[in-house]
Amino acid sequence: MIAHIKQKVKEGKLVKVDLEYDEVITGVKITGDFFMHPEETLEEIEKGLLGLKRDATDQTIAYRIREIMEVHDAQMVGLGPESLAKIIKEGLG
Amino acid sequence: MKWRVVELEVHDASMNMALDEAATESVRKGISLPTIRFYTWKPAAVSIGYFQAIRDEVNLEICRQLGVDCVRRWTGGGAVYHDLEREITYSVIAPLTLFPKNIVESYRLICGWIISGLGKLGIEAEFRPINDILVGSKKISGSAQTRRGGILLQHGTLLYDLDLKTMFNVLNVSKQKISDKMIKNAEERVTCILRHSTAGKNEVYEALVEAFTDGKDCEFGSWSEGEISRASELAENKYRTDDWMYLR
User: Fold this and answer.
1) ipTM over 0.90
2) Which of A13, B24, B58, B80 could join A34 via S-S bond, C-beta 3.0 to 4.6 A?
3) Where are the domains positioned within chain B?
4) Which residue in B50, B107, B127, B246 has the most chain A C-beta atoms within 10 A of its own C-beta, making it the best mutation to test that interface?
5) In angstroms, rounded to a whole number, what is the distance separating the alpha carbons of residues B32 and A7?
6) Contacts of B229 (CB under 8 A, 6+ apart)
7) Cβ contacts (< 8 Å) between A29 and chain B: which residues?
8) Is the CB of B103 inside 8 Å of chain A's CB atoms?
9) CATH homologous superfamily, domain B2-245
């Protein structure tokens, strides 16, 4: 299945998530006008979400995102792990 | 702390972004002084944020027809139309230790220099977090920042004049035909210096230089040969490549 979700998040920026999934997430692309330092962490987040179960809760998804951000000492601006997780959860239906 | 100021230059989009990156490397290595630069874009160009999908943001066909260049920035944020005559772009490249650790506060500090420059022209402006400057309730300037290896790079644009029709044509604001209503809506959200002052572009530039350098020990200088050569390499092998342009 494929899903495209576009939302202006509460932190202020516009985020678009393209998802591919069956029982688990098989593809993720996150785009938008937010900031993240260091920028390359987003690719690690996209990779780190692969294999996550379709019925994962938004808390589980947010936890995974935060874990990856901690490893890379990354900061998001205009977007937060919980808001990103909510969009992904919405895409998973 | 001594600063270098590189006065207003004109480059193409790739070289403008490459110079920022080359200077970041050179400031990090301690070869160059912390740097403030001002520049414009020839040909006119659209710069998109690091995380944006170019096909979502830019009407590439219209850009080709109008001769408008496109480049992906090293920084996040939104798509910006850089018109040669109608805006001034700046970059600040300096050690992170010179700025607040909090990202929004560091935007506030540097945007404060632009606000001060606008004040010299009699224009009252305010910072709106995260990265905008407003006059009245309308946006006149936007900035974007990255932090790498202990160096902060912030660049941003200040609108001198507005050509909303071209702006909307090159940016994928909507697939629909650019309507009068859309222009009117944007008129309510965006402004430019000429709506608030009769100052010439050079006068605006001088006010910015004065505001950015106020209280700093500055040396008006240029790029080193090493920076020019590194920037040319980055322009060619990174910023002009399809791999970079279509990264997302």
Assistant:
1) yes
2) A13
3) 2-245
4) B50
5) 41
6) none
7) 53, 248
8) yes
9) Bira Bifunctional Protein; Domain 2 (3.30.930.10)
